[in-house]
Known about the structure:
Elements: H1 10-18, E1 21-23, E2 29-31, H2 55-113
Bound molecules: zinc ion.
Amino acid sequence: MVEYNVDINFDETSIAWRSNKVAKKDGTFAYICEGKTKLGKKCVRKPLTGCNYCKLHKNKLIVEQEKIVEQETNVEQEKIVQQETYIEILLLLKIIITLLFLFIIKIICNKYIL
Ligand SMILES: [Zn+2]
């Protein structure tokens, strides 16, 4: 016969289950917002329907996501500007090298041919 070692940590499970709920006076539980207050404490507001956050924290979340997107866009734009600068420097170098080459050819022509 096979023996199974069933080791369920009920305390941890209970803590995890309660993490987004608050006990009411009648013994039932109600969902609470998963956001944190400015002091780092749990927000106890009622979450919006179909959402894990209250109105305030949902708006905060949206603002934070928009900030992240904006930062990423800025980084991308900086990269593009850097790349464009490199390309311009390369073009300038090409022109300088071509001019130098022409100048050297002119000197050689003057010295040996003419
Ligand atoms: Zn909240």
